[in-house]
Amino acid sequence: MGHVAELAGVSVRTLHHYDEIRLVRPSARTAAGYRAYSAGDVERLREVLAYRRLGFGLREVAELVGDPSTDTVAHLRRLRGLLLERRDRADAMVAAIDRELKARAKGLKVTPEEQLEMLGARLYDAIGSAYTATRRTEPRIAAQIWDALGDAQTVLNVGAGTGSYEPADRDVTAVEPSAVMRGQRPADAAPCVAAAAESLPFGDQSFDVAMAVSTVHHWGDPIAGLREMRRVAHRVVVLTFDTDEPGWQDRFWLTRDYLPEFAAVLAGFPSLAGMVGAIGARAEPVPIPWNCADGLFEAYWRRPAAYLEDHVRRAMSVWTRVGPEAEQRAVRSLSDDLDSGRWAERNSDLANLDTADLGLRLLVA
């Protein structure tokens, strides 16, 4: 036992405790009566310690490693996803600190929200607390997504967030890396696993269909995540964004006239053709209703004053990514144009439209 404790970097007392609570029980004894760990015991200990070092409580760890449907490979994939999330969190903290240092160097006022942004670290942790106010299922978009699910009975919802667009008439399993988002899921929502899209802790072809709604642009490696969805499911349905069309930045007046930084936000995003090719999909346009119930970035294309509301912007990842300077400038300019009538004059063609194609695409494979 002492040798195992030394290799694992824990005390013998810790191993005794794990044995007493039946978390990791050595399967054999030496001739002298000492506990002896088999290869399988060491494997389980490795999983326990890895989850513990990621901050899971002993009860949570016991449930995770005791799940009979999850094998070693699944645990490794889950652990990899959680570690990627932690890496992303650290990267986001550095980026938030850099933004604040830049703002302070210019003598700009840093709001309490901006000061606390670095503690949120991950993008969804920074914006997640506002999601329940404006982000909800839009029935017309949901109908198109659910129609694409076809006759699937088992559904994996990747990057599930708070649970919007999860079909109530299917057997749904959710995957969401952000603890803030998981914490806001309704009590009757589908069970949710803490993992990242790039490392899904499920076996090949475990689900009839894997779906992902307005989340791919937040993944560290979108193509890897899409391929993982393809691996674990027979079919794939993804709501994403098209950046292939020439001049795509000008489709939406907000990015064309007020927020040119939006193009940089998606600079590293894979092409629509690349995503289609990765999973062998077809792409369908997803029109956005003028009175869209889901407060996604493009939702208020015919209701421009909504973008002046802080609680509306806080539930949109774009504003966090472009930074406070660009956000404040865009809001001031839009407010001035709404007051002067310039916005209405420039966008008069939108007044009689019921829907708009602003680049949302549904990939069906």
UniProtKB/TrEMBL annotation:
Keywords: DNA-binding. It comes from the Bacteria. Residues 1-67 form the HTH merR-type domain. It holds the Pfam family MerR_1. InterPro entries: DNA-bd_dom_put_sf, MerR-type_HTH_dom, MerR_fam, Methyltransf_11, SAM-dependent_MTases_sf. This is MerR family transcriptional regulator. It comes from Sphaerisporangium flaviroseum.
